[in-house]
Amino acid sequence: MKLSEFYLPTLREVPGDALIASHRLMLRAGMMRKLANGLFAYLPLGLRSFRKLEQIIRQEMDATGSLEVKPTVVVPGELWKESGRWEAMGAALLRVKNRLGADFVVSPTAEEALTAIVREDLESYKQLPLSLYQINTKYRDEIRPRYGVMRGREFVMKDAYSFHADDASLDKTYADMERAYRRIFERCALTVIPVKADSGAMGGSGSEEFMVESSIGDNTLLLCPSCGYAANVEKAACRSDAPTPALSIPLLEKIDTPNVKTIKKLCDFLKIDAKRFIKTLFFRALNVEADLQAETGVQSGCTKETFFAVCIRGDLEVNEVKLAAVLKAGEVALAADSDVERLSGAPIGFAGPVGLSSVPIIADETATAMQGAVTGALERDMHYKNVCAGRDWTAQLVCDVRTVKAGDGCPSCGAALDEKKGNELGHIFKLGRKYTSAMQVSYLDEAGKSQTPTMGCYGIGLDRTLASVIEEHHDEAGIIWPIALAPFHVVIVPVKYDGAVKTAADTLASDLQKRNVEVLLDDRPERAGVKFNDADLIGIPYRVVVGDKNLAQTPPKFEIKRRGADQAELVECGAAAEYLAGKIRVTTQAP
Amino acid sequence: MKLSEFYLPTLREVPGDALIASHRLMLRAGMMRKLANGLFAYLPLGLRSFRKLEQIIRQEMDATGSLEVKPTVVVPGELWKESGRWEAMGAALLRVKNRLGADFVVSPTAEEALTAIVREDLESYKQLPLSLYQINTKYRDEIRPRYGVMRGREFVMKDAYSFHADDASLDKTYADMERAYRRIFERCALTVIPVKADSGAMGGSGSEEFMVESSIGDNTLLLCPSCGYAANVEKAACRSDAPTPALSIPLLEKIDTPNVKTIKKLCDFLKIDAKRFIKTLFFRALNVEADLQAETGVQSGCTKETFFAVCIRGDLEVNEVKLAAVLKAGEVALAADSDVERLSGAPIGFAGPVGLSSVPIIADETATAMQGAVTGALERDMHYKNVCAGRDWTAQLVCDVRTVKAGDGCPSCGAALDEKKGNELGHIFKLGRKYTSAMQVSYLDEAGKSQTPTMGCYGIGLDRTLASVIEEHHDEAGIIWPIALAPFHVVIVPVKYDGAVKTAADTLASDLQKRNVEVLLDDRPERAGVKFNDADLIGIPYRVVVGDKNLAQTPPKFEIKRRGADQAELVECGAAAEYLAGKIRVTTQAP
User: Fold this and answer.
1) What is the ipTM metric for this complex?
2) Which of A450, B6, B513, B517 is the most exposed place for a label (fewest CB within 10 A)?
3) What is the value of pTM for the model shown?
């Protein structure tokens, strides 16, 4: 491809709102342009890399035995109402009414569509397992799209869905997918951190996210430097750090704490550590699943709000995602002050579990492990001391909802955990029967009995994967593409596209093309410096400079430089095509 | 690919609402499933053919020098307001409000998006011509989606847009695209009829549609059996069939025609032919372009409605699309009866051009060619006779708006035209500066002067192209795929997948795969008849039957049958892979 016949509007200026390297470089290199907030159009250069990523993912999906399908992007709202996500997804779901007033969704994901497709034809256990995937446009109506395609509104996702007769079959496909994901990221030269994850609004049992470390990451990861334990803070556990229980605790005692409304003030007032205090928070939950109702008394029902209290050790925070997962709730948030005062019967700052009967009590394990604690007394200016779980109060449910932090003990080996920020590129889930039950999918087992299949789902965001590759592979001058994703393998830069230099450049381009090497020939009448800058900016792995001086050597030579390398090397013209083809071939073959 | 590892839910029943062969067969063969009215999901079998079509189109677009891009599917409504199509497109445009209340469009086409992308970086004439294309999801909120993917709501379109400094450059790209389209359809083994077409709401000067003949076609085509002239009725012209003018015509005379309100009654009453009558119709137009205002007095302005009368010979019909094109109007429709009575000052049935001053008069050429005609007299129960154009009335604009019919004379050679129904698969347009002016695109020419580029656009609907291939290539038993689009090239049917038959089938499959032949191996424990039926239904070009009897021959043989052929042939097992590979190779190479 001659550059004069290509469309490469590179920019010298750094666009003002581009805060991260990939956003800046994708704009500067002419890979994409912004159509609106969170909406980006890929230009020819960007699309070449995008298609290569698509192909890598397709190959690895095919290798797992998954079959490609193409549902529509716009799907009937009815399907989302069947699954319950029409309500549960909130404002990020782009809802549309058509000309006849019927509800539609611009798909953010396709559990419903794929489940609907499969249920139409699924009859027998002989058809299972079944794994289907698509690589297709998705839309999430993000409230604050940022960082270019890293957090855009429209994006392309590969999403696979598998259907199984039993857990063992789901486990096998899940493991196959995990391996496929590792290979995909490896082929993209991406350093990913697989972490244990919460299954979120998708429902289900097990899930793992594939993260890349990033200063602008919207996920917090807890990583063990010793044993390799890795989890999203939304899922992370830690070793118990409860103090040894005392042998005896005096009786519960009410104490005067005039105007002492915060833990900090209370610590100062009583001269105790925050770890001696039980913090009691009121939450409001939506869409709590029915099976929790009996256990906890928390009311279930679609979009019905319900209140409850959470007790946790005073130095810790409650992680709302862990809490929502425990409750199988669509949404969990701190209750409003007015609700807290109504439910606790006291001003803000004096809540506690002793005598609390207006709402169910959910206790973090750290709260029930405390003997002789201090808590609010549900009365203005009053606290209790010597509070003992089991003796003075009981919880309807004891669970782990604390926010794990750097320094907490690894749940596997006890070493101090590290904390990092990460961006999620992929996510694999064991969904269980959430969708297949709600949408009434069934098949006949070997005994002729009707059964509901269990399900897995597996996503990768293509746009943010591509952006993450640039985040990991760039320098001051521009992108440094791994060969597998490079828009072209080789850029030929004739210092002047004329005479013997032109002939040598054209011959090399043609020799490379015969060897399936993708070549960009910079035939523009620009200064060599301009061409070098553009070549570095767009990040082509190999640059061949064709100049009079080296052509005049015996034998004539080209200057070949690997993008990002310090040194160029001189290679005989006659051997250059095979030399470069060899470099490309080794790195672009599927493993 | 083993069939047991593929997903092929074939159906024996013909779905009730599937009225045409492609709709029926795509459902029965398990190529697709319906998600909602006009929304179809491609299953693995269908997607394999779909991707091949996509690749043929991509290759032919690349060969024209067009570069692939990927704008978003959801685009800002602002862009559509800039171009004026937010209003002009009507209810078929799927409009969405996001969570912040901003307007968006689920793209039915991408003139706006591509123009917006190009205007951001276009600076110099050196960047022109520029041709960009996408193969992407589109949405048209069809009021009555029908016939499967032939007239669906969501579909995939290849749409290309070219930008030029001058008409000569546009003409060249337009001609390149026309050739590319012919090659695309040829590679798909489709018989297309390129016809002259109206440019519709897209605006512009020249355009050509690529049609396939179809009994359910929503286009009427006029075709000359003699010289090859071919046009959509929305554009078709014909030879003048005006009678020789009389030497002298008596003066205008008002005649009593009590209660004679229709042309038929009038013909009976006056004992004249309908060809002697001038029919006067009142129309209402929206969005008439400004440059017509001066010429005709028809009011221009976005969404502003304006009325006018059209005169035509009594035996002819007015084609509203031709009329809208003449007026450069967004929409044209017959006026309501109440408007007609108000504007003509008479009851329905007595309109005529003589003395009509309430609205501008547009005359079809057939009306001004008439001397001594009969027309309504703008008065209850009264007509005029001896009406002469020029003497008794004049038109503000004379043009060709008649609906050409079978039997009318070809405008090129005069032979009687044929009429056929057709479906549009592709459409190429010279858009001119409609979008680049409205959206203020400019570049500097060689003299440093700011100029507006001219533009072309070029679309192909992938889904209906695929369906049309099935319409043209099927029989009672199922689809007969041309090799270039076949989901698999060869289906191997072992009569029983066991013992020596299994070994021979597996060996052939492996030998074919080594030769890049795509093989489906029917390893199901089904009766041979079931397998044969499915193979015929899904339309795989070559079927190889592996059976004990032919394997027992010396040398052992396979039975090979071309789908759709009458006879099978026996081929030696050792030669079969190369024999089949040879057949496939010849037909799948790009021309």
Assistant:
1) 0.91
2) A450
3) 0.92
